[in-house]
Amino acid sequence: MKDDVYLYNHARWEALAQANALFTRPRLDLDRESARDYLALDRLGIAGELTGKKVLCLASGGGQQSAAFGLLGAVVTVFDISASQLERDRAAAEHYGYEASLVQGDMRDLSCFDNDSFDIVWHPYSLTFVPDARDVFREVSRIVKTGGIYHLMCANPFFAGLTHQAWNGEGYLLNLPYEDGTITSYPDQEWVYDQSRAKIQEPVEYRQTLSRIMNGLIREGFILTYIDEIKGNDPEALPGSWGHFTDVAPPWLEYTWLYLPNVLKNAGTAG
């Protein structure tokens, strides 16, 4: 599905990988304990042994989450739009001595995977890079096993496109309509990559309202078991700084969903 959305995201993430951006640097300093802490599995309610569990790191290239799951004994597959990102996952697997399956593609099309392929689908921040989250949810519901876990981290839809640069002296000004598909863009934070060495096109993101996310997943047969608003924790941060902004307007949401379509069907709620 190499439409304009695919081509833009592919070009941007190839450029970020070449610039050694923060999200493209493999985690090569983990052990089993720190791997579990890094994934925050206990906080998310994901208990038990992961050895042998089939995990898909979805739109998750860079050798970070895949490294943690590999160390914990999972059977790891990484799916990402960027071949350069997947090379980081290959490097992490070689560093730690586990095997990983690496697949390049668009998260809206997971037809390369069979039905009921994975126990866990782990999806870090990337959902807003596509116009309609429901395209992804349909694919995930097909490939995750009944009783399987879908972990999703995405933009807080209420603050999509807003950064600390929106400070007007009194607060952070919201000025975009709260509608599905509203296009947002903003400069990369200075800590993402060395902007003195590279200049990369800004992200193009699409607002996914909370109702689209929640209802889209419920209709596919998912049940919510955990949600968190990820925010800053710096009471000394100055107004107009990134730290202050993230304390006032939590930029990210994190969910754990269980795929239990029969439960919802029997309850008469799965439209």
UniProtKB/TrEMBL annotation:
Read off the InterPro entries from this record: Methyltransf_11, SAM-dependent_MTases_sf
- Write the record's keywords in alphabetical order, separated by commas: Methyltransferase, Transferase
Kindly state a single biological-process term from the GO annotations of this entry. Answer: methylation
Extract the CDD domains matched here.
Answer: AdoMet_MTases (cd02440)
- Tagged with keyword Iron-sulfur: no
Per UniProt, what is one Pfam family of this protein? Methyltransf_11
Q: GO molecular function terms here? A: S-adenosylmethionine-dependent methyltransferase activity
What sequence ranges are listed for the domain Methyltransferase type? 56-150
| Name of the protein described by the UniProt record | Methyltransferase domain-containing protein
Native source species? Paenibacillus sacheonensis
Lineage summary: Bacteria, Bacillati, Bacillota, Bacilli, Bacillales
